[in-house]
Write a structure and sequence with these properties.
Elements (H helix, E strand, L loop, with lengths): L4 E8 L3 H16 L4 E8 L6 H11 L3 E6 L5 H11 L4 E4 L11 H9 L4 E9 L4 H17 L8 E8 H8 L8 H8 L3 E8 L11 H15 L2 H29 L8 H34 L6 E4 L10
Parallel strand pairs: 1-2, 1-4, 2-3, 5-7
Antiparallel strand pairs: 3-8, 4-6, 5-6
Helix pairs in contact: 1-2, 9-10
Length: 317
């Protein structure tokens, strides 16, 4: 690739109805920039005919590449695979659901030419999404910003442009639980943003269930902050102090005031409360242990079925 080159990484999972329009719009936008380019589709175990369409694009255009995974490994892994295989001076990550307009790539690239290593696409509006999803997302990212020690950009997804330096740095991070938004922010490279209105999904439904969103959210917190552990330890300390004072009061009441504390309801409520706190604490600690376990197993992040990329890009350590 030349000095003016750009790679577009597009993770795909059951998006056959969107791919033709997406490809046409991405291709038109990229070719208007007069740069060398590569479009990399990462098929993340799609069950529809997404891969057939991608293969057709690659057949007609030598600048289109595909990476076909054996099964669905998840959105963050699919993007990570694309980052391992891309080879350009800058890279754009864009989803395949057409909610993020490909035409914005021109503005992202223009900002990059001004000297920025990371250019976020910042959402002004999010059409077609429920109030609950928008509210929880807004709440989560503001909570995450409080928990981590570095700046997390608000109201941004994975749609962004990153320089080759950023790609190399991400490829050097071996963790299994990927949270690319946090990883890119953690690196601290010079960044800016371009605002846009997010469109509603045209076809199909999102592959991100609430369960997957919750899992991704927890990966973001446990991967970049130990404050939940600190919260659990402090909570345990406070409950221990409260329990100790309650014991002293019970002994004092029995022997000095000659009055024994009774009450089945109060006993059950206090036991249930403490039990709930214990389960919460074990759950939080378990999430951190699970991350350690996933990394210790040292399994590959993904399994490749096929690709038309001859050589994986070398990672500059």
């Amino acid at each position: 690739m030349t000095e003016n080159s750009i790679a577009i990484i597009i993770p795909v999972y059951n998006e056959a109805k969107n791919l033709s329009e997406l490809y046409a719009r991405v291709k038109k936008t990229i070719e208007s920039l007069s740069v060398d380019y590569q479009i990399i589709f990462v098929n993340d175990g799609s069950k529809d005919n997404s891969f057939t369409k991608i293969h057709d694009f690659a057949t007609e255009n030598p600048n289109v590449f595909y990476i076909n995974l054996t099964r669905n490994f998840g959105h963050q892994v699919a993007v990570s695979v694309g980052l391992e295989y891309c080879n350009a001076k800058c890279t754009v990550i864009i989803d395949s659901d057409l909610q993020d307009p490909p035409e914005l790539i021109s503005e992202l690239y223009a900002k990059h030419k001004e000297g920025f290593d990371v250019v976020y696409a910042k959402r002004k509006k999010r059409d077609g999404e429920s109030f609950f999803k928008k509210f929880t997302a807004k709440l989560y990212y503001r909570l995450l910003k409080k928990l981590v020690s570095f700046e997390i950009p608000l109201d941004t997804g994975d749609y962004r442009l990153i320089s080759k330096k950023v790609v190399n740095a991400i490829n050097s991070m071996p963790e299994q639980n990927k949270f690319l938004r946090g990883q890119i922010a953690w690196l601290g490279f010079k960044h800016t943003s371009v605002s846009f209105d997010r469109e509603t999904r045209k076809h199909g439904k999102s592959g991100y269930s609430y369960g997957k969103m919750f899992s991704l959210a927890f990966d973001g917190i446990t991967g970049f902050s130990d404050k939940p552990l600190l919260f659990v330890s402090r909570l345990g300390f406070l409950i221990s102090i409260f329990s100790f004072l309650l014991i002293i009061y019970a002994v004092f009441s029995h022997y000095i005031l000659d009055k024994t504390i009774t009450g089945w309801t109060s006993l059950i409520i206090s036991s249930a409360f403490i039990g709930g706190i214990q389960l919460l604490s074990i759950g939080v600690i378990g999430e951190y242990i699970s991350r350690i376990n996933n990394n210790v197993k040292n399994r590959p992040l993904y399994v490749l079925d096929s690709t038309n990329i001859n050589n994986k890009t070398s990672v500059e350590r």
